[in-house]
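Q: Structure for this?
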Amino acid sequence: MSDPSTRLEQAIEQLGADLEPPPGWEARVLAAVEPRRRSWFARGWFAIPALAAIVLVAVLLPRAARRAPERLALSAELVAGSQVMRGPSALRAIARGGTGHRAIWIYRDGRELAAACPGHPACESPGDALRIVLDPVPIGTYQIIALSSEAALPATTGSPDRDLAAAQDAGASWKLQELEVR
Amino acid sequence: METVDTRSVPACDAEEPDAEGVRGEDPDQDIIALIQRAGRAAALTSLMRRHGVAVYRYCREELHDRTLADDVHQQIFIQAHRDLERFAARSTLRTWLFAIARHRVLDAAKSRRRAQAHIEEDDTADTPDPSPPPGERLDEARLQHALIECLRTLGEHVRGTLVLRYQQGFTFEDLGGVFDEKPGTLQARVMRALPVLRACIEARTGGNV
């Protein structure tokens, strides 16, 4: 039998031993630290001469040089779906750029894989993009992750936290967005 | 008993505990290397994976409000991401992270007091009968319940020191980096607090620890 002080210390050690953070918390933090795109207005007038310079360089550069790998980009939004409903009822995600193996993984409430593209019937590859439209999309908070990797991407497990960590370990680059469907 | 290094630990600010330097290798050296090699987002992912649960337990124990703890927990890692590039390795990464956690927890507790928000009781559905026959040794459930109640009666600094010392296993030296105080002062605080805690538990329950 332990002495009272040791027992007290052990009891403090055991405080909250069974507590776990809520599912999907890592994905939510990563979504929060993703750099936000600023509007054209916010970028200011200095963007115009910069754009002119970019166009000039693009015209002058040889075609081969312009085929440099594009950075991975993700665009996810709620759009009008096929159902007659007030407000958006479908979720559309488009991944562009990146190299090698690409995928879009969509999770609901941080604990359930809603769709993995490629593999999902609604997944398409128009041009160099990867696109998926979930229609209709149930109420929930969705974490949408676009991935690109030279090596094969790991299989999804249903947990965005675990899957993102595994993808990162495999050397994948990724973009993450969170959308709330009410 | 733990040997305490009574050398003075220089003062630290809120964001970067300023100890004399990390003694020995930081166990999170791989994460620190990731900051340079793969960027802050990659380092953040590893940091969350390694310390996320421990920081969460600390937040829940300090705030006793699941919703608030969830929010503060995420804010801690968002701030860690913002400040990772400024991490100067004057303490271990874990100490640095818990210093952020402590400040965010104190801020949240202060805001809550100001707003006089309702404090949710954690997991009280299976509250044990707190009154065993007088003098009887408390069982684990009664001890845990009374411990939670009595920890709340302690001051924030005392409670925080006890939780980080025993729940998170910090040495007094590392605690110096989190609290910006000398290890000896923190050890004395803990040694004074334990009998107070014990007396509180025994007075509330009538049993013995």
